[in-house]
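Justification of computing resources. Each target in the renewal requires a structure prediction run like the one illustrated here; the chain below, 75 residues long, is used simply to show the kind of job we budget for.
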Amino acid sequence: MTVQELVPIEIRVHDRASMDRCLAAAVDRMIDSAKGQRTHGILLTRLGDGHFIVAFSSAVPFGHTDQVDLRHQTA
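Resulting structure tokens:
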């Protein structure tokens, strides 16, 4: 499976413990997949309270995880 074939992981949680556990599991899954490709980093995007997307990003260097918080941005 290539990096481009791995579907981003969407996470919706209602409490802090679930958030920590789910985000850690999603990032770990992405790290395992990224090791074979060595081309993309991981971007964790917070879309709202308890709503996240974890995905590969060519804007993030391999071996790094970056975070973006879009909760309070206006169009």
